[in-house]
Structures are given as C-alpha cells and as structure tokens.
Amino acid sequence: MKRKFDWHYLRPVLIIISMTTLITMLMAYFSHAYHAEVQAGYDSEQASYRDIEGKIRDTNEDKYFIEVYSERFKALESTGIFVAEQRVDWVDSLQAAIRSMKLPNVKYEVSPQRLSADDLLRDADSILIYASPLKVEMNLLHEQDMITLLDRLERNVMGRFLVDSCEMKRAEEKFGYYLDRPNLGVTCQLRWLTLSPASSEAGAGV
After folding, report:
1. Residue 87 pLDDT exceeds 70
2. 11 and 103 inside one domain
3. Do residues 22 and 2 share a domain?
4. Phi then psi for 143, rounded to 5 degrees?
5. What pLDDT, on the 0 to 100 scale, is given for residue 119?
6. Which of 8, 80, 134, 197 could be stapled to 190 by a disulfide with Cβ–Cβ 3.0 to 4.6 Å?
7. Are residues 92 and 126 located together in one domain of the fold?
8. Mean pLDDT of 37-46
9. Same domain, 113 and 190
10. Could you list the residue range(s) of the whole structural domain that residue 121 is in?
11. Number of domains within the chain
C-alpha cells in the first residue's frame, strides 16, 4: 500500500530550508566580494608602501653619495680646477719656483688654451676639459731638480697639470756632475687643465 505524503505539512519546512540556503549563498557571495575588495585594498597599500620604501631607499642612497662625493668635490674645487684659466698666476708660480731653486737659463712658453681631445672624463657630457700647453726648457745641475720643480708647481699652482713628456740630455758631450755649470738639458711638455660646464663652452677662453 502506497504511503501518501502530505505536502501541506512539509511546505513550511521546505520554504525555511530554501530561504536558509539562499541566505547562505548570498552571505558566501558577499563575503567573497568583501574579501576580494579588502585584498585589493591591501595589495594597493602594499604597492604604495613598497613605492615609498623604494623612494626612501633611493633618497638615502642619494644622500650617502652626496655626503661621500661632496668632500671629494670640495677637495678638487680647492685646487682651482674649476676656475677660469689663471695664466698670470701660473707664470708667477713658475718664476717663483725658478728663483727659489736658482735654476739658470730656464725658458718657458704657454700656448693658447684649447679644448682637450683626450678622453679623460668618459661619459661626462656635461663637463668640458680645457688645456693650456706649457713648454719648459731648463739647464740643470742634477736630474732631481726637475722632479723638485714639478713638485713645487703641483703644490703652488691653482689647477691641475699633466706632464706629457720630459726629454733629458747631457749638457756636454762628456757627462759629469759639475757644481759650477749645468750638467743636463731638459725639455718638458706640460698641460694645465681646467674644467667647465658644457653650457659655458661658447664663453670659454681660447
């Protein structure tokens, strides 16, 4: 014998179960959407934090390099290498060194300043190097006098200079150390260097 269900009594239960299921599904949906929104906000905040952290790190690195290189720049600046050509000062220092060392028969010639073609500063497009060639011819009693003269110029002259070459030869056919006359003839080719921003090239002296 078939048993007959009375759906009239089951209807409220089924409605409650359906409503509960629907509410659960809606809660799960909105919970997932809220979690996704929170996660997106968190990811955005993390990205902003990493960006700020990177900027702080870059700023600290820039500060470090500024502190490190500012002292080096000040030391280099104190040499006068960024100052415009000081030809009169150079000649005065050279003459003072010659008088102090009592060097006989010293001749010198300073050529006009020109833009250096040497690749002394690679990848420094904003800096131009100018050189003033200087030729010095001198008769010396001893080869150490040449080293002493160059050392005095380096310590007393504003700017920097390079020694391109020094040619030394005997003053007489038979070599000997004499106290009353030169023993060596020396010719040195020097270059005094100055630096200038590339923007000031048009106004630089030649």
Report:
1. yes
2. no
3. yes
4. -65, -25
5. 61
6. 134
7. yes
8. 81
9. yes
10. 87-203
11. 2
